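ok so for the tutorial part 2 we go from a plain amino acid sequence to predicted structure tokens. step 1 is just haveing the sequence, like this:
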Amino acid sequence: MDQVKLIEEVAVALQPFYFANVSPHTTAVEYRKMFEAHARAVGRVVAVLMTDEIGPDIRDKIEQAERHMVGIMVPGSMKAVQPGGDLAELSAAAKRGDVE
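step 2 — the prediction. this is what the tokens look like for a chain of 100 residues:
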């Protein structure tokens, strides 16, 4: 099984649920919470799908996958809400009244 493809597909499939309440007024703190929750969920799903047999060690595998996904997904996502990032620019435009 192609793990990278699986991660990409799971991440895309879960996005509508974790980012349903995004608006131009969403703050960086709110985005970070969403990014972290999304990454943890991706890690959970991928850990289970990549395990051949569910056993007593699944909890450890899930926790490890959650930490891994948060570590790789959140920093990259947060770049978008930093000054100059796409989401930061959208938020600034909303505060100016340029976006509804």
